[in-house]
């Protein structure tokens, strides 16, 4: 698992374009990222849409719960006007449309923001949607909801699963061994990544991806720890930094 870490653009190149939009995803690839991270919710008509918050207010011209709208209703909103007038034409993408934007082999880390407590069947919906892409893209399905990953695994056992966590765990590798599905990667708040954690994860055959690191000092520390991936809002800057090393 040695070599330079993968550079994964957090919600796309979200420092330079509105997060979780086509513009942000295309820009991330232009900037040299190895791939992207994106967030999904389930609409009222059972479609997977790409947006971070469970409400529309911060990043769109709409208001209220994402899950109370149909995909057609979301398509009528701007998801870029909040960022700049130049991006006013960006809409909330459907996951199905986003996957075709990426070149073969690109990392696409799909984060399920909320599991069945909010969205019945979202794990199965994600697994079904991603299944045709599993040989073309380097897919990861991640979530802070570790139960929904079991649903993903049942529906599509070939998909790589990433365990997201943001608090100090007593024994992350011991924990993942107890889960009823194989874990491909730990997705760890970057301040919690240590070389000891990376060694323990690698000994268990598991990668470590760190989120969300933008500052040069943080990126350098993660490289020194041996992290396998760096999830960043500023992939262009991280690409330049790692190329210069
Ligand atoms: O995938 C890591 C990171 O995206 C998790 O936090 O809130 O940015 O979705 P958040
Ligand atoms: Ca996310």
Automatic annotation (TrEMBL):
PROSITE patterns: GP_PDE. Pfam families: GDPD. Transmembrane segments: none annotated. One of its GO terms (biological process) is lipid metabolic process. SUPFAM superfamilies: PLC-like phosphodiesterases. GO terms for molecular function: phosphoric diester hydrolase activity. Residues 5-242 form the GP-PDE domain. PANTHER family: GLYCEROPHOSPHODIESTER PHOSPHODIESTERASE, CYTOPLASMIC, GLYCEROPHOSPHORYL DIESTER PHOSPHODIESTERASE. This is Glycerophosphodiester phosphodiesterase family protein.
């Amino acid at each position: 698992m040695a070599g330079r870490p993968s550079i994964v653009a957090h919600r796309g190149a979200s420092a330079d374009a509105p997060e979780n939009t086509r513009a942000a995803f295309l820009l991330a690839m232009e900037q040299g990222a190895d791939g992207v991270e994106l967030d999904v919710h389930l609409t009222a008509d059972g479609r997977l849409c790409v947006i971070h918050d469970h409400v529309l207010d911060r990043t769109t011209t709409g208001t209220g719960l994402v899950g109370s709208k149909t995909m057609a209703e979301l398509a009528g909103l701007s998801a870029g006007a909040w960022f700049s007038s130049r991006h006013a034409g960006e809409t909330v993408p459907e996951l199905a449309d986003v996957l075709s934007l990426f070149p073969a082999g690109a990392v696409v880390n799909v984060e399920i923001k909320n599991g069945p407590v909010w969205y019945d069947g979202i794990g199965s919906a994600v697994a079904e949607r991603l299944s045709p892409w599993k040989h073309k893209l380097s897919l990861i399905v991640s979530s802070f909801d570790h139960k929904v990953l079991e649903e993903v695994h049942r529906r599509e056992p070939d998909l790589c699963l990433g365990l997201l966590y943001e608090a100090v765990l007593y024994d992350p590798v011991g924990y993942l061994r107890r889960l009823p599905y194989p874990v491909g990667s730990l997705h760890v708040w970057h301040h919690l990544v240590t070389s000891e954690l990376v060694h323990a994860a690698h000994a268990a055959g598991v990668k470590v991806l760190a989120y969300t690191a933008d500052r040069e000092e943080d990126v350098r520390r993660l490289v020194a720890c041996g992290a396998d991936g760096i999830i960043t809002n500023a992939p262009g800057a991280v690409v330049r930094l790692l190329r210069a090393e």
